[in-house]
Amino acid sequence: MTTPLDLQLGPLRSEITFTLHTQYAHKLWMGRPMIRNGEGKVTQSSIISVPNCFAMLTQIQRAASEDDPYADDYLIQFEESVINYRKEIQKTHQRYCHALRQNVAGGNFY
């Protein structure tokens, strides 16, 4: 039997599950608050959590869908940053694999 709520259109909702296997990954996911010393100077800057980052990107994406030029510009800059970081990670991974192959091939495991 259908109810009036079943017939209403709206956003699709689903549940996403992540399994974080290390404490380091968990800390990155959860973020970090800003830490100040006794004088009020920032000693450690804050790191935004991944869920908060997704929430902000969702708001910016909604603004972009409503023709906000600043939101469009921000999304373009964000995409370019993601592409650049991905390239950096790939280069680092290639260097790491190359160094590992050289050390393992020579019998040097350190």
UniProtKB/TrEMBL annotation:
This is Integrating conjugative element protein, PFL_4669 family. It comes from Mannheimia haemolytica.
